[in-house]
Amino acid sequence: SLSTGLDLPGRFLFATLTLMTLIAILVFIEEAVYIYRKIPSSKRSIIIWINAAAPVISTTSCIGMWVPRSTMFTDFTAGIFFSIVIHKFLMMMINECGGQKLLLRRFENGRFTISTGPCCCCCLCLPRVPITRQTLFWLKLGTFQFAVLRPMLIFLSIVLWTNGNYVLYNLSPKGPAIWINCFIGALTLFALWAVGIVFRKVRILLKSKNIIPKFALYQFIVILNHLQTTIINIFATQKIIPCAPPLSSTARGSYIAQQLLIMEMFLITVISRVVYRRKYHDLEPPECACEEAVDKEQAP
Questions:
Q1: 105-137 pLDDT, tens per residue?
Q2: What CA dihedral angle connects 31, 32, 38 and 43, to 10 degrees?
Q3: Distance in angstroms (rounded) separating the CA atoms of residues 226 and 264
Q4: Distance (Å, whole) CA 174 – CA 89
Q5: Has UniProt tagged this entry with the keyword Nucleus (predicted)?
Q6: Domain spans of the chain?
Q7: Percent of the chain residues topping a pLDDT of 70
Q8: Which residues of the chain have pLDDT under 50?
Q9: Cα(140)–Cα(132) distance, integer angstroms
Q10: What are the respective helix, strand and coil percentages of the chain, to the nearest 5?
């Protein structure tokens, strides 16, 4: 068992990481109470969802660290939750602009630059798309499809896994794991692309609301939860991470990924509390800005 297999330094490490997870949960609960009391109801739930991403990933990683057999379920739980958070982050940027109607009014003659990462950062020849209700609908659909389809694919993976057909580290073309993971990867790229397009347009307008640090924290969660974990799992599968009895290479790689995530998500939880805790003034409506400009011209 896990408790008998750990030496004294190992138990100290596990206890420290568990304590960090508990602190991250307490910090999030305190932040959620503050948001519930101080933030308007129209923005409250979205901001709580986004702030919950790091503590949830830290908690699932901690459970997977203590109960190795639950790794499949904990990873899938974190994946489902974060797929919803990506959609919530896009909606938060639209809400911070005053909602869809005010965003369309602010950028009435503007255009979206679609040659951005992670899909089309090298395709500089792509045309700029007018900012209309239809283009906003397609961008929201780009993240919404991820929030709906990824949980469905993860549910399919669990069903196949319980039947013995889905092996997480079996990347042969005959197995379903590689095809499901490739499809989820494509859905992820499209969702991140939609968020990147909107962020590139509103980052200057929302600079006073610290949208750049918020986007940076969101990007760190994406990179650490997806890219870092995938790289470690590939190293473990290829035996680059050596086995350490009684742990195999894949089990040891899973432990390393979970322990790194707990520490990283703890730091992101603390930094998120600082970034989201500040009070930001709402942006002025476009009409008010126009009227003030006219009044200044008529004053002389």
A1: 888 888 887 777 666 666 666 777 888 888 889
A2: 120
A3: 13
A4: 36
A5: no
A6: 8-280
A7: 83
A8: 1-4, 288-300
A9: 12
A10: 75, 0, 25
